[in-house]
Amino acid sequence: MFCPQCGQQQVSGAVRFCSRCGFPLDGVIQLLASGGMMPVYRSSDEPVQTSPRRKGVKQGALLLLSGAVIVPILGVIASFSPSAFPQLLTALAAIICFVGGPFRMLYAALFEEGAPKRLPMYGPPPMAQQFAPPRHNAALPPPPIVHTPSSWRGRPNTADVANPPSVTENTTRLLDKEDQTNR
Fold first, then answer.
1. Dihedral in degrees, nearest 10, Cα atoms 129, 132, 133, 138
2. Using 50, 70 and 90 to split pLDDT, how confident is the model at 129?
């Protein structure tokens, strides 16, 4: 990957800033990962819709936790009342809260729809960057500059002047020297 600002080739794709000019490369990495399309980000003031599944689980949890408050209060009231109605009301509240709450959560988790799958939305870049002064960004890094002095001549190819000796020629010379010393 090359830096879009200065053209410096980066060592790896995990680099967050250009090593030459310090340009942040996070956006470039996201752009390359999404196939060249800029994602549109949702603004923070937009309300987030909860899924029916999440609402059901929250309702079941609220019912279960409210039972921890309502049932003891009704139990205290029933203990001071001479009639059987407050005791029946306490038992009914306990059944609804402590059995109905978990059943509501289970039903929501199993049968209600989850959050909809969001497809990535692409669009123009944010407005702040749209009206910024254009910068000159090279698509490719600049070519390397090679300085060659005018007085420099290329190195001569000496293989053209004389043929290189064969591999066996040196060995043959050594054998000839041994024969002369043995005589």
1. -10
2. low
| Residues contacting 60, CB < 8 A, separation 6+ | 100, 101, 102, 103, 104, 105, 106, 107, 108
DSSP string, 112-175: S--PPPPPP-B-PPPHHHHTSPP----SSPPPPP----TT--PPP-GGGTSPPPPHHHHHHHHH
Token duo for residue 83: 């009639």
From the number of C-beta atoms within 10 Å of its C-beta (0-12, 13-18, 19+), residue 18 rates as: buried
Give residue 34's pLDDT band: very low, low, confident or very high (50, 70, 90).
Answer: confident
| Token pair of 169 as six digits | 């020629």
pTM over 0.90: no
**% pLDDT > 70, the chain:** 67
For 165, half-sphere exposure in the C-beta direction (CA atoms, 13 angstrom radius) is 7
Q: Which of 112, 77, 76, 70 is nearest to 95 (CA)?
A: 70
Contact 108, 46 (CB under 8 A): no
- pLDDT(127) > 60: no
Domain range summary for the chain, segments of one domain joined by +: 1-41, 52-111
Residue 41's nearest CA partner among 118, 132, 116, 117 is 118
Residue 59 has a CB neighbour count (10 Å cut-off) of 14
